[in-house]
Design a protein that fits this description.
By secondary structure, the chain is of the alpha+beta class. It is about 45% helix and about 20% strand. The strands form four sheets. A five-stranded mixed beta sheet has the order 1-2-5-4-3, with helices on both faces. Strands 10-11-9-15 form a four-stranded antiparallel beta sheet, sandwiched between helices. Strands 6-7-8 form a three-stranded mixed beta sheet, with helices on one face. Helix 9 (about 235-240) links the parallel strand 6 (about 220-225) and strand 7. Helix 1 packs across helix 6. The longest helix has 29 residues, at about 1-30. The chain is globular.
Length: about 475
């Protein structure tokens, strides 16, 4: 028995040493060096100095990872929030927010564009750094938010008060792990884990390896309530029904910080943490985009299904608008295909940022239909409906006839192929597409130009687009488990 215990202790010690070595290697790659940290500190001080002068009726605050001290090497994205009093109208907040953002940028010799989220804001490039100047309302914990960004200053204060400075590097390592497995970012493109969530997980569990071990044991519907804001677990489950991970926001108990985490990414996180604990490796931290091999291409083709893609120019909107719209368009076209008996197996949305192209990809089980389709009508006993059915199809060549007490006719299909159906549908004008359920930005882009790629042309396109090839490789060949 003693020999067994000694062996376990030895294995545990070896594991600990391996984790320590991996963490040390990762930090050397991702932690800002002293000169970068000093340069960032000086820049933030100057940014705040200018903001306080120009936006003197607000409280300027650096939020996000730079404000919380958990930013990664080379991360030059900075969030400058201008906190307005609650008695300022929304119109005035938006107007002054843009005015101040422009003036701050100009004073620091930068350039800017106007971006739109819940309300417009300034995105500036100053000294090779990306600075978002965002107006918000100054609220206290427990007060009702007026705009969704109002929580960010509260998040900053909470993290600074709860996160031991010695654990900031643990946050950095955890962020890099999530980046490495492809689930970092809670925006509507990535549907993954935010930096704020990483910080909360470290506050809850401590060191990186403790967080990984805790996640590896999670099941769908796991609840984490650090500040114990909820007394009744049943009510939590009711409020956040069907959300795979529920991490209650310490500054707002009615918000799940992982609300945007998709079920697929939750399972992936659990699966990858288990794999890491079984065989710790630095490879988990740095994502490799491998293309489909020739053998893998053969395997996909051997499914003997039909791959079809709709290509159009990526609309020039932020990801939190683009990705919900592109998913909605994909869903609408999926329903269209199936309503005409073209059965789907899978569908994907993909955007190639480098080529500025969006793809809607469909894998079809059936893509060619017979020339004739069968329509089953009402029961013969329902006289009015029977008369309506017979009147509607009085000129069909085959039928009517009776089957199981129902009227039946057979008529020529309007569309024999999935591609002809999609081409006809997408050729409508912009307003018609919107009325048919295609979101506005997608409809506008499709009306400018679209292409339908299928058969050999689809696979030729995959071979020529490394990013698309990597995307399909991950979707078809990456194994996940729970």
């Amino acid at each position: 028995m003693n020999s067994v215990n000694e062996k376990e202790k030895t294995n545990s010690k070896i594991f600990e040493l391996k984790i320590l070595e991996i963490k040390k290697t990762i930090l050397e790659k991702i932690k800002p060096k002293k000169d970068e940290t000093e340069e960032m500190k000086n820049f933030l001080n100057e940014l705040l100095r200018v903001a306080k002068i120009i936006a003197s009726d607000t409280e300027p605050l650096i939020v996000g990872s730079t404000g919380r001290g958990t930013w990664l090497k080379g991360d030059n994205d900075i969030d400058l929030f201008l906190l307005f009093p609650k008695n300022v109208s929304k119109e005035e907040l938006e107007k002054k927010g843009l005015e101040y953002g422009k003036k701050i940028t100009e004073e620091l010799l930068g350039k800017y564009v106007i971006k739109y989220a819940e309300h417009p804001y300034v995105r500036a490039e100053i000294n090779k750094k990306n600075v978002d100047v965002v107006p918000c309302y100054k609220i206290k914990k427990g007060e009702k938010i007026i705009s969704s960004v109002d929580r960010s200053p509260l998040h900053l204060r909470y993290i600074l008060s709860k996160l031991d400075p010695s654990l900031r590097d643990e946050v950095r390592i955890l962020k890099q792990f999530f980046k490495g497995i492809g689930v970092y970012g809670s925006d509507l493109k990535n549907l993954g884990i935010s930096g704020y969530t990483c910080e909360l997980l470290v506050i809850k569990y401590g060191k990186f390896e403790n967080v990984i071990e805790a996640i590896s044991k999670m099941k769908p519907g796991t609840i984490i309530d650090i500040e114990r804001g909820w007394k009744n677990i049943k009510k939590v489950k009711e409020k956040f029904r069907n959300e795979p991970l529920i991490l209650i926001d310490p500054v707002d108990k009615n918000r799940n910080t992982t609300a945007s985490l998709s079920s697929e990414n939750f399972i992936k996180i659990v699966s990858k943490t288990k794999e890491f604990l079984e065989n710790p490796s630095i490879e988990f931290f740095f994502r490799k985009k491998n293309e489909l091999t020739g053998e893998e291409l053969k395997k996909i083709k051997s499914r003997e299904t039909k791959f079809l893609a709709i290509l159009f120019e990526k609309p020039d909107v932020i990801n939190d608008i683009l990705y919900p719209q592109i998913r909605k368009a994909s869903e609408r076209l999926s329903k269209l295909l199936e309503s005409y008996d073209f059965k789907l197996i899978r569908k994907y949305e993909f955007v190639n940022e480098e080529k500025n192209v969006a793809y809607l990809i469909f894998e079809l089980e059936f893509w060619i239909a017979p020339k004739i389709e069968k329509k089953v009508g009402p029961l013969i006993f329902v006289i009015k409906n029977s008369n309506d059915f017979l009147s509607k199809y009085k000129d069909v060549e085959f039928g009517p006839y009776i089957e199981n007490n129902c009227w039946v006719i057979e008529k020529e299909r309007k569309f024999y192929s999935a591609s002809s159906l999609l081409k006809n549908f997408l050729s409508k004008d912009e307003n018609e597409l919107i009325q048919e359920g295609i979101p506005s930005y997608i409809a506008k882009s499709i009306r400018k130009e679209f292409r339908i790629i299928e058969h050999k042309e689809f696979w030729k396109m995959v071979r020529n687009d490394k990013n698309l090839s990597s995307f399909l490789k991950e979707k078809y060949f990456e194994k996940i488990k729970i």
